[in-house]
Amino acid sequence: MRTLIVVLSILCFAACVASAAWDMAPREFVPRDVQEPGRIVWFWADPLEPPDAGWAHGDYTATYVPFFHIDTYMAWGSRGHSYWSGTFAYDADGGYGNSWDDRLILPEISTVTAVEQTSWGRIKAEFRESDEGRGKARDPIYPVITFAYRNDTEPAYDYSYVQAESGRAYVNLNRGYDGVHPWGTTGFYLGNMNDPYNIRFRFVSDGAWSDQDGLYLSVGGAFMCDDIQVWDYYSGTVYFFDDAESGGLCTPGGPPAAGDYWHTIANNCKAWSDPTVWVNTSVDTPGFVPPGVQNWLRTPTVAISNAVSCTTYWVQQFFTPTVDNDFWTETVYMDGVGTQLHAWWGDQCDSGYTPCSHFLGGDDVTSLLPAAAMYHEWVYNTTDNGAGPDICGCAGITLDDIGFYGLEYMSEPAGWQRVRSLYK
Questions:
Q1: Which helix (H) or strand (E) holds 120?
Q2: Which terminus of the chain has a smaller tally of CB atoms within 10 A, N or C?
Q3: Are the folds of 7-62+258-409 and 66-253 the same?
């Protein structure tokens, strides 16, 4: 995604500013723009020694709801129904959101039992021509999957895959569809895959640039497919066919529950204000974040009804090698409405910093006011390989010294509003 920037390039080195920020005392202040009595305050701050009550964390894969469904919208050949990984939740012409891992799963398909068969094609495949006339040896089958599809996703970042099981793992039959592909047909050879065949379509989006945040506006994104057929190219024998009519034969699905790995540890290297810090690595393997996680961490909900301005604050380390598409996002929720601020990737050890370096993050979220309450959420996402360890043996991200500060209205003295109204 175009907004994915190595954190090192824009975050300040925390050693220069963090301790001073925490020592900032509230003071009276009259802002020029509002001309009301006010003061700069910390609405909330937590050095995690120990963490305040109200922190929460979990894994979005445990509650993932798939978006694949059968729809008549933009269907193949403008007829009937097609499978669609998409939604109308973000705009009128349909689209997709951030951090999707959407799957359409075919039933297990065996070459022993055909769904239908072309009789003459099967007879020709039973006996092939040879120098001695009709031979007795049966031609091997040439299994293929064919289907119609269309795609509209952010180029080079959001991909639609066709996958089949080989050994104990799914492998990609295509390089991943990205960008705009109008309806068309294609196919892939299955002879080197497991038989019976386990096949699925899978759409994966990263943390930004989609219809959800308005940074990539698709038309009917992300992925549609129809007329899915597994058959023998030699004989014409059909082992599976699904045209998405009458309810379809494929099953929408999502990632399996990966587990929640957020926890606090005491570590003077990782923590900024010693010794406690949030980390998201596996407890059993501290230098590794397991595959397929969408682990979220939320601050307590903080009352900010008197806030005139507000800035988030935190100290962070990041150990996410950029050889894969692992990333994390930051979102601020105002009165329950989320606004994603960033989607990040980056590794401080790969960029020449030490494993004990720290970095200051923060965003001015004044434009999201007024609000009665807010909280900050980080979500860490890994691909099928997990994340780390990097060259210094670390993985994931750490968070410490989190808070919100800004300008707050001061209460007016009793009777001041009545006096002021007399001299308007």
A1: helix 119-126
A2: C
A3: yes
Main-chain phi, psi angles of 85, to 5 degrees: -95, 90
Residues 6 or more apart whose CB falls under 8 angstroms from that of 332 comprise 312, 338, 339, 341, 363, 365, 368, 374, 375, 376, 377
3-state secondary structure of 19: helix
Report domain extents, the chain: 7-62+258-409, 66-253
> Has domain 7-62+258-409 been given CATH number 2.60.120.260?
yes
Distance CA 147, CA 384 (A): 25
What fold characterizes domain 66-253? Jelly Rolls (2.60.120)
Identify the residue whose tokens are 């196919």. 187
* Contact (CB, 8 A) for 129 and 135: yes
**DSSP assignment letter at 26:** P
CA distances 186 to 44, 105, 228, Å, are 56, 18, 10
- Neighbouring CB atoms inside 10 A of 200's CB total 17
Question: Any bridge partners for residue 242, and if so which?
Answer: 228
One pLDDT digit (tens) per residue for the chain, 424 residues = 332 233 333 333 333 333 223 333 333 333 334 344 457 889 999 999 999 999 999 999 999 999 999 999 999 986 799 999 999 999 999 999 999 999 999 999 998 766 643 333 344 444 444 344 444 444 588 999 999 999 999 999 999 999 999 988 999 999 999 999 999 999 999 999 988 999 999 999 998 899 999 999 999 999 999 999 999 999 999 999 999 998 999 999 999 999 999 999 999 999 998 899 999 999 999 999 999 999 999 999 999 999 999 999 999 999 998 788 899 999 999 999 999 999 998 999 999 999 999 999 999 999 999 999 999 999 999 999 999 899 999 999 999 999 999 998 765 544 444 433 443 4
In Å, what is the CA distance from 121 to each residue of 125, 130, 144, 189?
Answer: 6, 17, 16, 19
| pTM listed for this prediction | 0.78
- Closest by CA to 408, choosing from 306, 337, 329, 296, is 306
